[in-house]
Amino acid sequence: MKILVINSGSSSIKYKLFDTETHELMCAGLVERIGLAGSRVKHEIQDDGGVQTIVRETPAPNHETGLRLVASLLVEPGIAVIEDPAEIAAVGHRVVHGGERFSQTVVIDDEVIDVIRQLIPYAPLHNPANLEGILVARRIFAQAAQVAVFDTAFHQTMPARAYRYALPNDLYEKHGVRVYGFHGTSHLYVSKEAAAWLGKPLAETTLITAHLGNGASMAAVKNGRSVDTTMGFTPLPGLMMGTRSGDLDPAIIFYLANNLGMSLAEIDKLLNKQSGLLGVAGNSDVRDVVEKMEAGDENARLALEMYAYRIKKYIGAYMAALGPVDALVFTAGVGENSPLVRQMSCSGLAHLGVVLDEKKNNARAKDVMPIHAENSRVKILVIPTNEELEIARQTLDALG
Ligand code: AMP
Question: According to DSSP H, which parts of the chain are helical?
């Protein structure tokens, strides 16, 4: 069976095609600049010798043309990975917000589409694009089951004491203002990988997972279930990120509006697009910030210290929330590739049983890489995330 995984963004479609019989990735790609000048598709085919990359600059005025382009590449003579698009039995869609309605992956029907649409106010940047991907895929791969995998679903197991804000009840009961959490597919994927590495059932595994990418969040996972997470009603709070502030005193917003005359739109942009590493160090990419720090830039040093200090604080908080922890997991772009961030985040935590092995920490991550010292009570693992594979697996499961 072939499963196509789609992550549809406002001007891009990322895709991966999996063969569930061989458990192999067949091809992957990205249609970018949809609806803009200079749209193109980058299509990568896996073969025995490695990866063959095909780049086509071609107009993609909308998602429908973009996905039709993908469908035709899959069967194009000379580079075909399948003979007929009808071989694709299911399309697994990444959907950012599933609200309280979806705590599981679901097969998409008209009602599911309605609910994803109703949830647009909760994820105004993401759910419309995700929905567009679903509607287009329904037309192009009409024979395939369409399945939605939600970023919020894994966190629906949080207890009320973790997901409620100390606001008047009405705001939760009538308007759904609560912690939802994000990156759930990644937190779940690395949790499963960690449990397998530890040789325990997921349901008996307690973890702290740190997804440190451009966006970043941590999760407290008790017996395989998310019980707390650092992102909230939106992906803004929690850790310091590439361009997002993470946690801050909400009254700063009143100050910015009342004293600096900023509009809500300007504040939104400031906190989501101009803050985090970019705001403090002038660059959003950890590689650039490290380079600047090594060249003696004090703002870059401060930014990295702040970044790691937040992670450390949440490690401590989640150890208090969870009790005995089997492993601390680092994943995503920064978590997988920055020994410095891992080392700074774990330094001084020996009293909590968290001790890094410097040499292991400096090795390159592939598969599951343990980086804890022998005397570390808590295992520390670097695990490359694979959200698309998790979506493919869940899509397969949803089909029964
Ligand atoms: P992601 O959102 O998971 O794709 O992560 C993207 C981020 O990972 C980039 O913005 C970088 O900050 C970070 N990153 C990628 N490669 C490295 C690296 N070799 N060292 C440090 N950070 C990296």
Answer: 63-75, 110-118, 127-140, 160-163, 169-173, 184-198, 251-260, 264-273, 276-281, 286-294, 298-322, 332-337, 339-346, 358-361, 387-398
